[in-house]
Amino acid sequence: MYDFFFQAHSGLRFVVFFALIIAIILAFVGWFGKKPFGKANKTLNLVTLISTHIQVVLGLVLYFISPLVTGSTMGEAMKDSTLRYWKVEHLAMMLVAAVLITIGNAKSKRIADLTAKHRPVAIYFSLALLIIVVAILQSGRRLLGVSH
Ligand code: HEM
Questions:
Q1: Which residue's CA is the closest to the ligand 1 atom numbered 39?
Q2: Of the four, 17, 29, 86, 110, which is 20 to 30 A from 143 by CA?
Q3: pLDDT tens string 101-126
Q4: pTM for this entry
Q5: Is the CB of 119 under 6 A from ligand 1?
Q6: In sequence order, which residues have a C-beta less than 8 Å from that of residue 79 and are 6 or more positions away?
Q7: Ligand 1 pocket, 59 CB below 6 A?
């Protein structure tokens, strides 16, 4: 079961990355090019939102079964940078990223002006991407590679 959730969580990261990066590019092109928010923007924002939420659910399951998290108490984990990363930092940073994606999408939906709708997506999704990249680099694992 651990293997299944690990592979699923590790693999879905590529979908999150891909959707997020394309959504950001389209949002900036729309924002600065003053293009109306269209079906492609809506679809990509939705794919980004859904894949990120599924990633959080898979991560939450992993959190309770990964030996890296369950193998130590909170006190022990705090003294070891790798254990602390998986017990506290990964969870916290990724949840912040997921919340930013959710807020960006919600704010965009509330804006009626078709060109202004791009702005919250461009800003909030970019911040989320930055946090996700920093979090994965901080883990010591490869940004684009499955580790086991
Ligand atoms: C946008 C959200 C997230 C992304 C992009 C993400 C990405 C990743 C990546 C790339 C790995 C390493 C996979 C590998 O080495 O092949 C990983 C591992 C892990 N993630 Fe996440 N994650 C996210 C959210 C979460 C959340 C919210 C939690 C916990 C509640 C979580 C828990 C874990 C755990 C426990 C591992 C380590 C598994 C192990 O090596 O045993 N993740 N995650």
A1: 66
A2: 29
A3: 999 999 999 999 999 999 999 999 99
A4: 0.94
A5: no
A6: none
A7: yes
